[in-house]
Each structure stands twice: as C-alpha cells, then as structure tokens.
Design goal:
By secondary structure, the chain is of the alpha/beta class. 35% of the residues lie in helices and 27% in strands. The protein has ten helices and ten strands. The strands form two sheets. Strands 6-7-8-3-9-10 form a six-stranded mixed sheet, with helices on both faces. A four-stranded antiparallel sheet has the order 2-1-4-5, covered by helices on one side. A hairpin with a 2-residue loop joins strand 4 and strand 5. Helix 3 packs parallel to helix 6 and helix 6 packs parallel to helix 7. It starts with 5 loop residues before the first strand and ends in a 9-residue tail after the last helix. The model has no long low-confidence stretch (mean pLDDT 92).
Length: 237
C-alpha cells in the first residue's frame, strides 16, 4: 500500500485568537477522494486553511514525505497543492480566460485537459466571470486548480448552493479530476460523498471523531445520524 500523500498530526488552528481547530490528525491516501465531513461550524474549512497556512496554526503537516508546517502558503502551493476555496472566489470583473491565466503556475499548463473537462467554460472564455451562473463559476474555480500539475487538491464545499442538476455536473468533474490527482474534499452532500469518496474523516468541535471507509459510515444509518445529524441518503445540513 502506497504512503499517504498528506499526513496531519495534532493540528490546532485559531482565527483572531479564537481556537477553531482543537486537535486534528488525518491522512489522505495518494489516490482517490477523501471526504472531510461534519456539521456546520466544526472546523472543516479551518482545517483546510490550517493545512495551507492561511490561518495561524501549529502541529505537524507532512506532504509527500516532507514537513511543510513551517512553510508560508506560497511555498506550500508551489510544492503542488491546489486549493478550490469555499464560495468559488472568482475575479468577477475579469474574463474566464483571464481568471484561468492568473492561476497558471506551471510552464506547460494543462489547458487542453481543462477545455476537455469543462467545455462550457472553454466556450465562454471571453465572458466576464461575474456574469456566469453559480455552477459555471464553480467550474471556473475547479478549472483553475486543474490547470497546474498538482499532486493534491483541497476542494472546499464545491456543491454548496447549487441546483441538483449542477451538483451532478460538478460531481462528474470531480470524479474525473480524482482520476489524476488525489482530493481532500469538504462536502455536505452525502450523495456526492457516497459517489466520490473511498475514505472519510468526520470532525466534531475541532476534533476527529471518525476516520475510515466511507461505506462503513454511510451504510450505518445510526452512526451517520449521530455524527452528522442526517440520514445517509440525505444532505448534511
């Protein structure tokens, strides 16, 4: 069995002096999708931001066998970690093409792969990103991460606020992205988690309360309800 691409041990993080991650230890396999789950406000986004050094944090973070917890965010990104933030954060006044060009980090960005995976976005290259639908903006955000030859993608709430049809399209895109790059996915929609994730990590009050196979959690209705507050066939609110 291959070594995990990411190891996190004893991660603690705070924002403006308030502790938001208490003690998180997790591993992300070198293939497939690992879902980071939990009720609202338990520290999922803060865990991702802590891994990237976007907020004040302590603990050990190992990427591809090397410690990165003392490095600034730009160095961590340069190592090959792509980030798709919550709420998309596209540059609304710029065109789709300009949004993508700003994200290019490699000498040979994977433009053809992006065009193949996101044909609708490719067709709208000249359109202002702020005029796109929410689903289209999410595709731009995913495309930006896919342009570079990343070794790991951190994707935060990609289906949040999207219509069911668009959720399905985003899930298809993520499925194809995961064929090439392992993904740590923060996601509330358990149908998407069931479709994509092989393993899951559940947080509660800034701590890990479950880590294991996705099926072991989602096939156990009582455990899913206890940890997430919903049935496994529903979305986690």
């Amino acid at each position: 069995m291959s070594e995990p691409i990411l190891r996190v041990k004893g991660l603690r993080a705070q924002i403006a002096g308030q502790q938001v991650v208490e003690d998180v230890s997790l591993e992300v396999p070198s293939t497939g999708v690992t879902a980071l789950l939990g009720r609202n406000g338990v520290g999922k986004t803060s865990t991702v931001k802590g891994i990237l050094g976007l907020i004040e944090r302590s603990g050990e973070i190992e990427f591809a066998g090397e410690r990165i917890d003392r490095e600034p965010t730009h160095r961590i990104v340069q190592r090959g970690i792509g980030y798709v933030p919550e709420d998309r954060e596209v540059f609304a006044s710029l065109s789709v093409a300009e949004n993508l060009r700003l994200a290019e980090r490699d000498r040979a960005p994977r433009r053809e792969l992006v065009a193949e995976l996101f044909p609708d976005i490719h067709a709208r290259s000249a359109q202002q990103a702020g005029t796109l639908s929410g689903g289209q903006q999410q595709m731009v955000s995913l495309a930006r991460a896919l342009l570079n030859d990343n070794r790991l993608l951190l994707v935060d709430e990609p289906t949040k606020g999207l219509a069911p049809r668009i959720v399905s399209e985003v899930a298809v895109a993520l499925e194809k992205m995961a064929e090439a790059t392992p993904i740590l996915l923060v996601e509330q929609n358990l149908q998407v988690v069931r479709r994509l994730a092989a393993t899951v990590v559940v947080l509660e009050a800034g701590r890990v309360v479950f880590a294991g196979l996705a099926a072991d959690l989602l096939d156990d209705e009582e455990r899913t309800m206890s940890l997430l507050g919903v049935h496994s066939a529903e979305d986690a609110a």
